[in-house]
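Quick one, probably user error.
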């Protein structure tokens, strides 16, 4: 019998879309992404850390004009290709958080700023701090968005499939707001595209917190299959994350009890501490 995750992915492949998203594996475990408006041939790229790979993928996928760089945060493995891609494509617009000191940024962004791409794609900047102070996630939809053609969100190192980023520049309160309120308020079918391929390890850890959670067991099995076949585990969905990501499940009393905490933020802090020290 096919798992829910296999059925969801097969359904997505059958949908006729105007917005095409291409995963580009980079470095050891990073992802860059192309967001392509199929009607105009315009595209944006998220975190183009290896610009040559991005340009090759753009050519293969029929991109006519690579117009925007959407930088999630200032760390080198996300923003380190900005300067080079700016040299290769003069005039490309490079976006990043206004308080994040993003390399080669030409267009600073604040929470709620809106961009457009091509004739049908809308991009909303969401301030999702904690991993870095000015981290931006990008919520993207087009004029065909509905229950059968869900929107997407590019979450950098704030939300991973089954996990979240380290609290390098922020507080547990900020991460709770970013994960459970800002991202958690997006429509449940929203596809989640994160910055790294950490899914298998994240879900293995999640089972140490919630060993009886069969959704985690099922998704881990699927993720291991994907990786054995050298296939990505992105996208997830916001709904799947609420089912399988222990960092997004901290509002549940039973999860708080499992880590001997009494509030969501205490539980989030404790789970992050456990993950930071986990040797799995």
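Nope, works fine. Designed sequence:
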């Amino acid at each position: 019998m096919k798992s829910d995750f296999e059925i969801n992915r097969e359904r997505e492949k059958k949908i006729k879309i105007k917005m095409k998203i291409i995963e580009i594996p980079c470095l050891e475990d990073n992802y860059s992404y192309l967001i392509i408006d199929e009607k105009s041939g315009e595209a944006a790229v998220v975190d183009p850390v290896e610009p040559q790979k991005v340009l090759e993928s753009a050519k293969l996928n029929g991109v006519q004009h690579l117009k925007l760089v959407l930088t999630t945060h200032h760390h080198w493995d996300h923003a380190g290709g900005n300067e080079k891609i700016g040299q290769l494509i003069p005039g490309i617009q490079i976006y990043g958080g206004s308080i994040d000191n993003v390399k080669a940024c030409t267009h600073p962004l604040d929470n709620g700023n809106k961009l457009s791409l091509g004739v049908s794609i809308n991009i909303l900047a969401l301030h999702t701090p904690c991993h870095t102070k000015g981290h931006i996630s990008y919520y993207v939809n087009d004029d065909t968005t509905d229950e059968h053609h869900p929107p997407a969100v590019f979450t950098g190192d704030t939300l991973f499939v089954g996990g979240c980023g380290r609290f390098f520049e922020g507080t547990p309160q900020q991460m709770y707001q970013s994960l459970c309120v800002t991202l958690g308020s997006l429509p449940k079918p929203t596809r989640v595209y994160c910055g790294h391929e950490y899914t298998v390890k994240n879900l293995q850890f999640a089972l140490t917190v919630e060993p009886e959670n069969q959704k985690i067991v099922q998704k881990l099995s699927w993720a291991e299959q994907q990786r054995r076949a050298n296939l990505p585990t992105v996208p997830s969905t916001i709904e799947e994350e609420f089912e399988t990501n222990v960092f997004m499940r901290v509002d549940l009393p039973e999860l708080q009890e499992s880590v001997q905490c009494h509030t969501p933020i205490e539980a989030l802090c404790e789970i992050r501490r456990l993950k930071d020290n986990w040797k799995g």
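The CA atoms of residues 215 and 243 lie 7 Å apart.
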